[in-house]
Amino acid sequence: xxxxxxxxxxxxxxxxxxxxxxxxxxxxxxxxxxxxxxxxxxxxxxxxxxxxxxxxxxxxxxxxxxxxxxxxxxxxxxxxxxxxxxxxxxxxxxxxxxxxxxxxxxxxxxxxxxxxxxxxxxxxxxxxxxxxxxxxxxxxxxxxxxxxxxxxxxxxxxxxxxxxxxxxxxxxxxxxxxxxxxxxxxxxxxxxxxxxxxxxxxxxxxxxxxxxxxxxxxxxxxxxxxxxxxxxxxxxxxxxxxxxxxxxxxxxxxxxxxxxxxxxxxxxxxxxxxxxxxxxxxxxxxxxxxxxxxxxxxxxxxxxxxxxxxxxxxxxxxxxxx
Length: 322
Description:
Layout: H1 15-32, H2 47-63, H3 66-70, E1 74-80, E2 86-87, E3 94-95, E4 105-112, E5 117-123, E6 128-132, E7 138-156, H4 160-171, H5 178-189, H6 193-204, E8 206-210, E9 221-223, E10 227-230, E11 237-254, E12 266-271, E13 282-287, E14 295-297, E15 299-300, H7 309-321
Parallel strand pairs: 4-14
Antiparallel strand pairs: 1-2, 3-15, 4-5, 5-11, 6-11, 7-8, 7-9, 7-10, 7-11, 8-13, 12-13
Helix pairs in contact: 1-2
């Protein structure tokens, strides 16, 4: 493996990727500029047209050399980089370190613009990102090393039977008798936080089915150097669990999350036991962020046992564009 950013030839490992992201984001936002401004995604485009618009970014990530980007050290017994390459994982090299919390996912910010963001998630062995969504977004991900077990779901309309039940509930609301309303309201004010969450959950439940053929995923396994992609209604809900060697993945979000507009929501799945659909259908129930999930922003610490001038140069470049 090569050692990293080459300051002598001034080659930026991510330059081509960022230039392509600029181009793709411009094409998508140009389609939707208007009432909502320029920072929204063309999520309403036909699926084939949207895939075509994102394809250059997928191809750019496929060409990215992970060993150069992360200054990976070859290790025949380590994490997979490609069919012929294995490396020493880097989760112990990011700072600050969390020695007693091996399940913490680390996030390295690379770029953040109004139309897209780029970052690298570093997973210790067995760590996870629970099931979550990307509202009205496209996310292109390149596994830099290691592998994941992936769950992926497509958003669908409520099944007919569920839809009719919901319609009936809306058309015929129920209220407590007037004699009990004051007591009822007082009781509600003392409800626990979890009950309030449950009320909100029922109103915000979505319906989905497993994404049968997500790009780059073999069964439920996503491994380096594969690229995967999700769209507003295809694979938009997913979870990752890192394999025994840990993993790292570079994510490009178009557009990025935004408070109040495109919030990240976590979900749990509930299979619908029905006979009115030929596919498995799940209710996706919003939940608070799981207590066992932690993701911290960190920095990549240089290896102490090897020459690190090239890595330092790359990190300096990374800080300039972040």
